[in-house]
Structures are given as C-alpha cells and as structure tokens.
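Hello, quick one for you while I still have it in my head. I'm working through a protein record and want to make sense of it properly. Would you mind checking whether the tokens look sensible for this chain? I owe you a coffee for this, so here goes:
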Amino acid sequence: MFTELKQLFAMRSLTITVAAIDKDQIRVNVVPHARPEDKKVNEQISYSHKNEVTPVPEGAIKALTTPISITGTAEEIDANLPSILANYVESHVGLQNSLDRAGSEIYTAVKAIDERNKAKAKDKQQKKDDKSKSDEEKPKKDDSLPLWWTDPAAAAPGVSQPASTPDIPSTVRPEQ
C-alpha cells in the first residue's frame, strides 16, 4: 500500500483512515492535503494581465485534494487496494504535472506580456522623442527674427517705407 502511495506523499501529506462499516465491511480513505503552493499558480496573474491570461480553474486546483474511498471486505481490499491506489496515484500525479506545466506557461505568458508592454512603451517614447527632435530641428517662422528688426532699411509689416531722410540721424526722425 505505501509503495503505491510513495509518489503521492512525496508531493503532499496524506490522511489515511480505516473504519469498520459492519462486521464484514471496512472502508479505507486516502485524503491528500492542500499545499499553499497549489494556489500560487494563479497569483502570478496580476490585474494588468487578467484579460490576456486565463487562470487555472479553482476546480482543477481542488481536484488535487480529491480523496479516494474504498469499501469492501478485508480480503477484497487486500487483493485490490494496491492496483486501485496505483491508478489513483497515477491520475493524481498526472494532474499535478498538468498544474505545474500550466504554472510555468502562465509565468512565461506573463513575462512575455510584460516584455511586450515594455517594448511598446519604449517605442512610444522613442516616437515621442523623435517627433520632438524633428520639431526642434525645423525653424519655426515665429521663432526667427523678422527682417525689419535686423535691417533698419526694411519697413515693419503693415507700415509703408518712410520717405528718405538722408541727413537726419535716426534718433531725430519725425514720428509717424
């Protein structure tokens, strides 16, 4: 009996109970216990990942603690218990392996989503930086000095060219 259960109790603790039902019948119960690691598989999925990563269903996690109960005569249980427990342990170990594989796939998916989001943010920032650099490189008409400020012979916009006053210094010119 313990040889068949060895693989199962290596992963989690078990409770085994044996009870007499009547003078000919006995019942053997094997109950696997929950582990804190069982629920950690879904803890990797944060709020930002919930729309892209599906968690392992709670029923699948609870299935790891599904007990087995065998009822029969002592002779029947002696004859059949090892094969029944071997099948039970095989299916339980398969379920545990599936849960572990799902946990690693969830971890990989969450990591890939985080990397993708970082790349998107980096690309967005790069585009923003490129746009601001290209805006800085283009001289804006408003940023350049108007010609009438730099050339005293040029007229200000909307003002006609004043009459020529050759001998009058510019500080003495009549106001317009």
Summary: Residues 2-121 form one domain.
